[in-house]
Design goal:
By secondary structure, this protein is an alpha+beta fold. The chain is built from 13 helices and 30 strands. It folds into 4 domains: about 230 residues, no CATH class; about 140 residues, no CATH class; about 80 residues; about 110 residues, Beta Barrel (Elongation Factor Tu (Ef-tu), domain 3). About 25% of the residues lie in helices and about 35% in strands. The chain starts with a strand and ends with a strand.
């Protein structure tokens, strides 16, 4: 191959054509012969591109031009500047073009194209070509190391081929590599195209009509070829191989955790402690002979002093009518205290029961004294320690009376429990909006409080039932991210939360630390990871048979693959990865 290549540039030659010839030459030294008014070398950006390409391909660049501005730019970018005549040291090329540097070779009918030497015609390592083919004559002499090379004239019929290019092309901004990236190999026709000279109107008038028709046909063929090569695209649909999952994870959640800890399986949570109650009066349905004592509650006050007063179980409290009621348990009545300059008596509530059965003890609210203090002559305590009933005494009966049956009591309890539980659920749902709660059904129901128990005489009874729940809510995204991390780290699989089934068991909450712990069972499928960039690179340039063989070798990771090439004439995957669309279907 030639070690030196001479490229004769005409005034209107495009820089991208010149650069393409430069990139495709195998010579290690390239000499550009430029007219004084070359448009391609007016733009400094083109010198930058040429310098980058020369450095990348390790080629030496020389310019022969009479334009001082062009030579100045050449020196700036470390290109050799050759002069046609020099009285001092002889340049590498003594004479190349025998025309005035201000003339455009395209306008000089005396100029022939420089000799297109085939490898067999090359002498002493030189090869000279022009960008545009012209039908003019020129004999040049090249000298190197004392040897001369004569470039023979060769007349050729000039032709012109059109190229469809973007109307907004700007040489200083366009990426030359992208302009030509779709043409990986130049055909002989393209080589000819690179050397076609632009003709004047006078030249085309003298062109034979048959030649013009042929030129049009060739242009259409080449235009179609460019479209054929550059419009292809590929759409690749891949379904990764699916692996079954059946995993159990122990998870902890608490309001003490601010972030997810994948090492300890901890996720942030929010504590909720909700209590609700429901109360209602129910009628009794039972009836039987009874001898029942009335009962109720009194509030015992201590105005005697700051010292608490102890009262034993069965302590008597007496009404002004002499009816006796006794306490059911021992109590200690607090002493007095001073608040804002006032003496406040101590007080405590206690349940009492009538000393005898009968309706006579079903009395309204009133004041009670402690007869034991009077009997032992302790007048101070007798006057200062007393009781007051806040509700009427009820339940006293002898003979036939309505009573609370077991059914009455249990029905009331169930009704009120359902109401209280529903209140808890609604309150929990409102307060935990946006959070996941996995033990919402674990609601605790308290023992009912009733004004009458089973088999006690009463026309009606009032019951109150309370319900409560203590739990921790968390974000589902935090749990899903923890699961994805665990499966990725331990199984090297991709999972999609929406394709997983989660179930929870062993749900407990520590009443002291407020830690929620549970075991989550994960079922579904995980998918083998797909390297999209590698598949695009591997498929680049492959035909149908090669595509099939390629995916047959990926059965460990790819479950199914489909490749669509468009338009219909495309039979290979484009080499440009930007034209390959890859979609992964799970």
């Amino acid at each position: 191959m030639a070690s030196t290549k001479i490229i004769n540039v005409l005034k209107d030659d495009k820089f991208e054509e010149i650069l393409d010839l430069f990139k495709n030459t195998q010579a290690k030294e390239v000499i550009f012969v430029l007219p004084k008014t070359s448009k391609a070398f007016k733009n400094e950006g083109h010198f930058v591109i040429l310098e980058n390409e020369a450095n990348k391909s390790n080629k030496r660049v020389s310019l022969l031009c009479s334009n001082p501005d062009t030579n100045k730019l050449a020196n700036k970018y470390n290109f050799d500047v050759l002069l046609a005549k020099d009285s001092g040291n002889k340049p590498l090329i003594t004479t190349v073009n025998q025309f005035d540097p201000d003339d455009d070779p395209a306008d000089t009918e005396e100029l022939e194209e420089l000799n297109k030497l085939s490898p067999e015609q090359e002498e002493d390592g030189y090869k000279a070509i022009t960008i545009s083919k012209i039908n003019r004559g020129l004999e040049d002499i090249l000298k190197q190391s004392g040897k001369t090379l004569k470039i023979a004239s060769q007349k050729e019929r000039s032709i012109s081929l059109g190229v469809k290019k973007k109307t907004n092309y700007e040489p200083e901004e366009i990426d030359i590599k992208k302009v030509w990236e779709s043409q990986s190999e130049r055909t002989s026709t393209e080589d000819i195209w690179g050397g076609i000279n632009k003709r004047t109107k006078k030249t085309f008038k003298n062109f034979p009509k048959k030649s013009l028709i042929g030129l049009g046909v060739v242009s259409l063929v080449m235009f179609g070829t460019i479209i054929y090569i550059s419009t292809g695209s590929a759409k690749v649909n891949i379904t990764p191989k699916k692996e079954p999952l059946d995993i159990k994870l122990k998870i902890f959640s608490s309001d003490r955790f601010s972030t997810t800890d994948t090492g300890l399986n901890r996720i942030p949570g929010q504590l909720f402690n909700i209590e609700e109650s429901s109360s209602q009066t129910f009628s009794t349905t039972g009836e039987k002979d009874v001898a029942q004592k009335a009962r109720g509650k009194i509030k015992v006050f201590n105005e005697y002093g700051t010292t608490p007063q102890v009262l034993i179980a069965t302590t008597r409290f007496q009404t002004s009518d002499g009816l006796i009621f006794r306490t059911l348990k021992g109590i200690t009545v607090p002493g007095t205290k001073v608040e804002n300059g006032k003496i406040i008596p101590g007080s405590i509530s206690v349940e009492v029961i009538a000393d005898k059965p009968g309706q006579a003890y079903n009395i309204p609210t009133g004041k009670f004294s402690v007869p034991a203090f009077k009997e032992r002559g302790d007048t101070g305590r007798y006057e200062k320690i007393y009781g007051i009933s806040e509700e009427a005494m009820k339940g006293g009966a002898i003979g036939k009376a309505k009573v609370v049956t077991e059914t009455d009591f249990n029905t009331a309890k169930q009704t009120l429990s359902d109401q209280a539980n529903k209140k808890v659920e609604e309150s929990l749902k409102t307060q935990t909006s946006g959070l996941k709660v996995i033990n919402s059904s674990v609601i605790k129901t308290k023992e009912p409080e009733s004004t009458a128990k089973i088999d006690e005489a009463a026309d009606s009874f009032n019951m109150t039932v309370g319900s409560s729940i203590k739990t921790v809510g968390f974000k589902e995204d935090d749990l899903n991210n923890l699961i994805k991390f665990f499966i990725d780290k331990n199984l090297n699989l991709i999972v999609l939360p929406e394709k997983l089934t989660l179930s929870y068991e062993n749900v407990t909450i520590d009443e002291t630390s407020n830690f929620l712990s549970f075991t989550v069972t994960i079922k579904g499928g995980g998918y083998v990871k797909i390297d999209s960039d590698k598949i695009k690179s591997d498929l680049s340039g492959k035909n149908e048979k090669e595509i099939k063989n390629y995916f047959l070798g990926l059965t460990d990771s790819v479950g199914m693959a489909k490749v669509n090439l468009t338009p219909f004439w495309v039979n290979k995957v484009p080499r440009d990865k930007e034209k390959i669309q890859l979609q992964i279907n799970y």
